[in-house]
Amino acid sequence: MRYISCFLIIGLFTFASVAANQEQTEKPLQVGEDAPDFTLQDAEDREHALKKMRGKIVFLIMGNRKIREEDDKWAHAFQKDYQGNSQIVAYIVADMRSVPSFVPKGFIKRQLKKDKPPVTLLLDWKGKVHRAYRTEKKKPTLYIIDPKGKLAFHIKSNFDKETYQKLKAVIDGFKN
Asked: pTM of the full predicted structure?
């Protein structure tokens, strides 16, 4: 009985320690931190590397197929204000882990070519970028990365005009 009690106590401490470590790794990324680097492909198989975008303002809309409509709202608003500005780019980064495994990647890419999103959509097949950026599954996770590669803005939000104005103010602050 004494040994069972010891194992239970050790087990509880181990569980608490693991839970604490998981909580530490799940802290949201902070403004001012270096943006986690990534290289992803779009539907045309072109590679896009964050490191190569240094010198530009990068707006990342992180989402999945279930919230694509919300992702597109953010992208449409962005395009309306910044289309044609070569110093500011936006990407929808799609978490593809929710796509059923029996659906071929080629089929998905063909569909994306037919129904083009408002900004370039990058395919995160294994969810590695979404894990690095600690995204939300039920609403878009938005990041602005400054020209030096630092996080300048972060929020998890469905589209609304007030939040978009905050985001826009951050972008416009870099242009001045």
From this structure: 0.82
Task: Report the distance separating Cα 6 and Cα 12, nearest Å.
Answer: 10
At the fourth CATH level, which superfamily is domain 29-175? Glutaredoxin (3.40.30.10)
86, amino acid identity: S
pLDDT tens column, 102-141? 888 888 888 888 888 899 999 999 999 999 999 888 899 9
* Distant-in-sequence, close-in-space partners of 114: CB < 8 Å, separation ≥ 6: none
Strands 151-156 vs 39-42: parallel, antiparallel or unpaired: unpaired
pLDDT at 84: 87
Q: Which one-letter DSSP state was computed for residue 151?
A: E
Exposure string of 101-116, with b = 16+ CB inside 10 Å and e = fewer, is eeeeeeebbeebeeee
Of 13, 36, 4, 19, nearest to 133 (Cα)? 36
Average pLDDT value for residue range 60-72? 89
Is the Cα dihedral 44, 50, 40, 96 positive or negative? Answer: negative
Residue 101 token pair = 């495994």
Alpha-carbon gap, residue 23 to 20, rounded angstroms = 5
CB 39 within 8 A of CB 53: no
How far apart CA 114 and CA 137 sit, in angstroms, is 25
